[in-house]
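Hi there. Long-time user, first ticket. I'm pasting a complex I've been working with (about 356 residues overall). I'd like to know whether the download I got is complete or cut off, because the file seemed smaller than I expected. Thanks.
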Amino acid sequence: MLIRREDYRREEYIWIDGAKPTAKLRSKTRVGMRVEQPGLWGFDGSSTNQAVGENSDCVIRPVLSIKDPVRKKLDTMLERDRGDLLVMTEVLNTDLTPHESNTRAACVAVAEMCRGQEMIFGIEQEYTFFKGVRPLGFPESGYPPPQGGYYCGVGDDEVHGRDVVEAHLEACLEAGLKIHGINAEVMPGQWEFQIGPLPAVEVSDQLWLARWLLYRVAEDFGINATLYPKPARGDWNGAGAHTNFSTREMRNNYQACVDAAEALGTRHELHIENYGYGIEERLTGLHETCSYKEFRYGVSDRGASVRIPWQVEHDQKGYIEDRRPNANMDPYVVTRLIMETITGVRLNGDGNGVEE
Ligand code: ADP
Ligand code: MN
Ligand code: MN
Ligand code: MN
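Hi, the file is complete. Here it is re-exported in full:
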């Protein structure tokens, strides 16, 4: 029996693996019928650090399906829309309970518990391009000129990888992701995009998809995008994932913004422990960071753990920025911890994500 091409589409199932200390994205393709919704699928957990060989099956369940802009680009050349999808999934055990590597389930549970506060998040994802073993723009030997002109720079001497960044931005827009902007960062080859503002689970699902698109788009340029928090040692900025957030109350009342900053200080160590591997190397107190050993907040202060933007003080309402999370953080964990700390809700140890 033969199939009719037009009845089918390519579905790229994406999941988060069990790699330690930092989980990575994996994906594989399923040919699905266009009239059907993406459904449960499985993979070999013994190859992703999520199961043992004798009992290797893990289940993936779709949580967010978007238009696949990568395959769509090829389709445009064919002047045909084949309806291909990127399918973000969560990993389950074969009894359909959340797998121990699944940090989303706890985020969903906490978001539900504090739904009334209408929390939203905008995440600034910094990253670094690598060509081989060096950051893009670093010479074969030695170092490029010191930091100063690269942030939001223009020109071949300052900017490295813009074609990749533009292709990624277009891919995110084509896919319908809520991308807020892009900018060149302080170190050569380092860039940022922002996702949000959106509720915790949505911003996290979209951030993981935007990360996958970044890796995938860069792959075609022969460039590797990385989330290393301190990609170059010495006098070079690290890569973070500043997490901006607000409750409905904060969006109406400045005192609530100050109270939120105070609250973050009460669980500083717990947050630091769960804000991405290698955070001590990045939060040194230099390079626009506050040492991981201290907690401080301030208006316009980029040397603080938490910044209240000047506009927020001026308007007497808005949001605050948690500057501590590393680029390699898990947004399901970071947004969940912030929700817990700000609203006071606590998950009664279901084993997923972090424990207190
Ligand atoms: P920075 O000046 O720190 O580089 P960016 O412009 O990169 O700031 O990022 C600011 C982020 O704050 C954006 O992702 C945006 O979506 C988010 N944001 C704006 N308003 C709010 C709000 N009320 N609540 C939560 N996030 C917000
Ligand atoms: Mn930014
Ligand atoms: Mn930045
Ligand atoms: Mn920021």
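A couple of notes from our side: The longest helix spans residues 200-219. Confidence is low (pLDDT under 50) at residues 350-356.
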